Amino acid sequence: MQELTRHVGEQLKQIRAQRGWSLTQAAQATGVSKAMLGQIERGESSPTVATLWKIASGFTVSFSQFLQAPPVVGQTLQPYTPSAAFDSKSSGMSVVSFFPYDAELRMDMFVVELKAAGYSESSAHAVGVIEHVIVIEGELELTVNGEVHILGPGEGLRFRADCKHVYRNNLHKNSLHNSSVASVKFHDIIHYPPEVS
């Protein structure tokens, strides 16, 4: 995890330098405090998944850019080794970049796991970002712009992610799918608008 924290910080510092932005400008664009951005860059703090999404949206870059290197452009057959899990202990969410951002397809793919009682609230992503969520195991309560959807294994939802959305492990006695799995695991395919790098 320390290696991943360092990588996230280096990526943030590099992207900010490429833009020529001060920490103040980066804070204004992302909605993340200047102090927190500085701590992340120095590897002193590991951001939550929600905070990392705010940073990616503010810089209009893909989320996976912070987790692993992008694929080689022009290579048609690309086997991938999933990235190290990006764990957010406070939310119980673990995110693994399975296929990193592909500039030609403008998408990346994650495997996400929410432990028992796991919950993650995501602020609106950049306009035009679309998510495709497909549950692998367990039961997911996915709230998009105030509308609640309960998804079990093999079920999915495609939605515009430029609004507030919340992921919650739906394990409880009134489960619609009677799941005995303590955690919920799902694929999350993100499709970005053309201006994302």
TrEMBL record:
UniProt keyword Cell division, yes or no: no
Coiled coil spans: none
One MF term in the entry's GO annotations: DNA binding
Keywords: DNA-binding, Transcription, Transcription regulation
Presence of the UniProt keyword DNA-binding in the record: yes
Domain HTH cro/C1-type residue range list: 12-66
GO CC annotation: cytosol
PANTHER family, per database record: HTH-TYPE TRANSCRIPTIONAL REGULATOR, HTH-TYPE TRANSCRIPTIONAL REGULATOR SUTR
UniProt-recorded name of the protein: DNA-binding protein
